[in-house]
Write a structure and sequence with these properties.
The protein is an alpha/beta fold and 212 residues long. The chain has six helices and twelve strands. Strands 1, 4, 5, 6, 7, 8, 9 and 10 form an eight-stranded mixed sheet that branches. Strands 2-3 form a two-stranded antiparallel sheet. The protein has a two-stranded antiparallel ribbon with strand order 11-12. A hairpin with a 6-residue loop joins strand 5 and strand 6. It starts with a strand and ends with a helix. The mean pLDDT is 95.
Length: 212
């Protein structure tokens, strides 16, 4: 795996991902699993964030404290990225959330942009891009294009996803080699429809109980 692709290996993540894969997992359990994995991804992905010190005072004595230096923004890709947002807001409660609307056209499998809540200029230093699945990598690349055009360099973006395909990761890495990716699992195969196999199905449908 490329140096900037971080695949987490942890018994809790492995168990939660296995539960997500099961077709018998309920929407409630699926949402809880996505949130648990997202929180662990966020925890690991923030290890290298720069810190600032400050002088504080406990009820007993003065102390030197620490706080996160960069301003953090969250950019979930609608709609499945919403399932990861609350977990990251637990780590960054004051972070602005900039929703990006993208869907994949069924025939060409190309991403189509339909919504962006990015303000005219970035009031943040680092962005966490949230999407549970990287299948072909096209949607992630389109979102990254929106973010870099906005003014945030790829090296200041961390892409967090629950499951990816090998093809999708290679696609994203080829287009954005400076991007840091954090993922809980990687599958080798894609179906002819561009779906990760064995995967876990459509994460948006399973999160919001809209499976037909």
């Amino acid at each position: 795996m490329a140096p900037k692709v971080n695949v987490l290996s942890h018994p809790i993540i492995n168990a939660e991902l296995s539960k997500l894969r099961q077709s018998s997992t309920s929407p409630k359990e699926f949402r809880e699993g996505i949130e648990t994995i997202s929180l662990l991804l966020g925890y690991e992905a923030t290890r290298t964030l720069e810190e600032d010190s400050f002088d504080g005072l406990t009820p007993v004595a003065p102390f030197i404290g620490s706080k996160i230096k960069p301003r953090i923004g969250l950019t979930p890709i609608l709609r499945a990225g919403l399932g990861m947002t609350d977990a990251l807001l637990k780590l960054f409660p004051a972070a602005p959330v900039y929703h990006l609307g993208l869907y994949r056209e069924k025939v060409t499998l190309q991403p189509v942009e339909y919504y962006s809540k990015l303000p005219p200029s970035p009031p943040v230093d680092h962005v966490f891009l949230l999407d549970p699945l990287i299948a072909t990598g096209g949607t992630a690349c389109a979102a990254l294009g929106m973010i870099t055009d906005w003014g945030i360099a790829a090296e200041n973006v961390k892409l967090l996803c629950v499951l990816a395909s090998e093809v999708g990761l290679k696609h994203v890495q080829a287009e954005y080699p400076d991007l840091e990716i954090w993922v809980a699992g990687v599958d080798k195969e894609l179906t002819s429809e561009g779906i990760i196999s064995p995967g876990l199905g459509d994460s948006g449908d399973r999160l919001f109980n809209t499976i037909r």
